[in-house]
């Protein structure tokens, strides 16, 4: 039976951080559901660095269809969860479904992949994050430490069922670790 993967995101998701995991999971033969606050074509963004700027720039990127609304998702039907970064985490963490999704995957010890700004989503369940170790985009360090976790200064870190990555350049190792946890 094929593994089922849930990707939770929304508009302004970093394009590489949703497309790469989506297609990589499909390549493995997994069933993948992209869920967002409502079913729609999501507008992704591209985050990149320009010489002389202290932070990244954001440009519109490709559209990608979400398959389901958060309210229609039963997390018990899925074997793994991926949370891409970009700006989507800053508002999807406010959805009333999100704490329940996270609780299910962590309490059931199912693989969770969180990359870049996904730390903003993980931070909403401090009781589950306290004492954990994970990495995230550098600007998200306060989110990691604020929920009682230890920020790891490496581009990729796996602890238990949680695979975390710094940003989109770390996607090959991130997905390798996530898929290994599923098998």
UniProtKB/TrEMBL annotation:
It holds the Pfam family DJ-1_PfpI. Residues 3-180 form the DJ-1/PfpI domain. PROSITE patterns: PEPTIDASE_C56_PFPI. It comes from the Bacteria. InterPro entries: C56_PfpI-like, Class_I_gatase-like, DJ-1/PfpI. Belongs to the peptidase C56 family. NCBIfam families: PfpI (TIGR01382). This is DJ-1/PfpI family protein.
